[in-house]
């Protein structure tokens, strides 16, 4: 079935919905041009769609899944006059020209821009972002449906289905989220046949020594644990409640010291073990809660990090589910499929979507700091509505000057 072309209201700019000032402030044009030049993707001649404009277009395109390619471009160009000659009338390229411009850009530039800029943003003043001087981050993964094209099927595959076949091929991605700001970073993507554990290996290499990483039991394993610890970060991960963890020493707060092993032989001979602290607890009075939760942590000092505090802290891991919901429902749109028809453009679109989310979350963080508020208490949807009211201000100025939002 053909896609119904949707248009934005007459006279609209992208600035009506999410200001290009916010995006351009987050991803400065000078940085984009430098990456393009280094990658050999800079525009040799000034086309209707020069490469740096296409980068912004990809981010805007990922935001407006229900609008046509040309409609998003029209709104984008009207809001980007500070990137072009204001005296030149806006000329909206056709769909074929847009596809060619995106193909020329590829996805590597978008990935490099993502890798250089998308990162934790919490400061010492950010509420809910720290535990005793450690930046709280969480690890998890999700999937996105992509256009049902032969090339996408070959590159990404269909997910398993209990009956029949899935309607769309899927990509799988794994991310870290900064709990205090809900910024997704260190994102890695692949086809749906690639496991989350495999993707997590590259993600965990992005941990920093000042971080405390939370993760669910599906990620626990000696290899991943060791990889994460090699980064210098501390860990608080859930494990199966029946995992064999013999207590070496009972601690006053009810936790105990134990060891994990790479293989069965090491476990039997008690060789090459890595010391961890084990915390068992239950959630009383919570409907649907499991009888016992078991955590392991690299924080061995029970006085510095009491068991009750860590048990409560672990449930902050759900912050990443909120970020995934924002990405998949509020930005992408419920039941909307990524529209790109080739694998490279799917990858390009994925990074555009991640970067759009990062720009919005960055604005929310600035607002929270100015109000001395926890970013969790700000509404993602309301933030977009606030930006809508500023269209006449943001559309007219370059991103180097950003007015105060209210």
Automatic annotation (TrEMBL):
The record places domain Transposase IS4-like at: 133-357
Q: Which UniProt keywords apply?
A: Plasmid
In terms of superkingdom, the source organism counts as Bacteria
Entry keyword Electron transport: no
* One Pfam family of this chain: Nterm_IS4
* Record-given protein name: IS4 family transposase
Which InterPro entries is this protein grouped with?
RNaseH-like_sf, Transpos_IS4, Transposase_11, Transposases_IS4_N
Residues annotated as domain Transposase IS4 N-terminal: 19-113
This protein's record includes keyword DNA-binding: no
């Amino acid at each position: 079935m053909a896609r119904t072309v949707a248009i934005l209201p007459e006279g609209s700019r992208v600035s009506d919905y999410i200001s290009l000032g916010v995006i351009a402030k987050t991803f400065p044009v000078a940085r984009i041009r430098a990456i393009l030049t280094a990658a050999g993707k800079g525009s040799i001649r000034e086309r209707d769609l020069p490469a740096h404009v296409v980068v912004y277009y990809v981010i805007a395109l990922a935001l407006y899944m229900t609008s046509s390619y040309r409609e998003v471009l029209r709104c984008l160009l009207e809001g980007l006059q500070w990137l072009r000659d204001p005296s030149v009338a806006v000329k909206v390229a056709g769909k074929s020209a847009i596809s060619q411009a995106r193909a020329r850009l590829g996805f590597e530039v978008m990935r490099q821009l993502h890798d250089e800029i998308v990162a934790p943003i919490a400061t010492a003043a950010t509420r809910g972002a720290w535990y005793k001087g450690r930046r709280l981050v969480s690890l998890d993964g999700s999937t996105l449906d992509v256009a049902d094209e032969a090339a996408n099927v070959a590159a990404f595959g269909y997910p398993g289905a209990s009956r029949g076949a899935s309607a769309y091929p899927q990509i799988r991605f794994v991310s870290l989220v900064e709990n205090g700001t809900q910024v997704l970073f260190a994102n890695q993507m692949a086809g749906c046949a690639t496991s989350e554990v495999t993707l997590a290996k590259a993600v965990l290499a992005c941990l920093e020594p000042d971080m405390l990483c939370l993760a669910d039991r599906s990620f626990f394993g000696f290899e991943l644990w060791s990889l994460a610890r090699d980064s210098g970060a501390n860990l608080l991960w859930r494990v199966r409640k029946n995992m064999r963890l013999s207590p070496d020493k009972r601690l006053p707060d009810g936790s105990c010291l134990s060891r994990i092993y790479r293989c069965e032989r090491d476990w039997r001979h008690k060789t090459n073990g890595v010391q961890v602290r084990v915390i068992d607890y239950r959630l009383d009075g919570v409907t649907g809660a499991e009888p016992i939760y078991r955590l392991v942590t690299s924080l061995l000092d029970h006085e510095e990090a009491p068991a009750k505090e860590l048990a409560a802290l672990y449930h902050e891991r759900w912050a990443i589910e909120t970020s995934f919901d924002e990405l998949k429902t509020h930005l992408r749109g419920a039941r909307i499929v990524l529209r790109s028809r080739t694998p490279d453009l799917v990858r390009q679109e994925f990074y555009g979507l991640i970067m759009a989310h990062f720009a919005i979350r960055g604005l929310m963080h600035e607002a929270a700091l100015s109000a001395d508020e926890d970013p969790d208490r700000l509404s993602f949807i309301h933030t977009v509505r606030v930006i809508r009211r500023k269209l006449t201000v943001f559309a007219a100025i370059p991103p180097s000057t950003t007015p105060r939002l209210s």
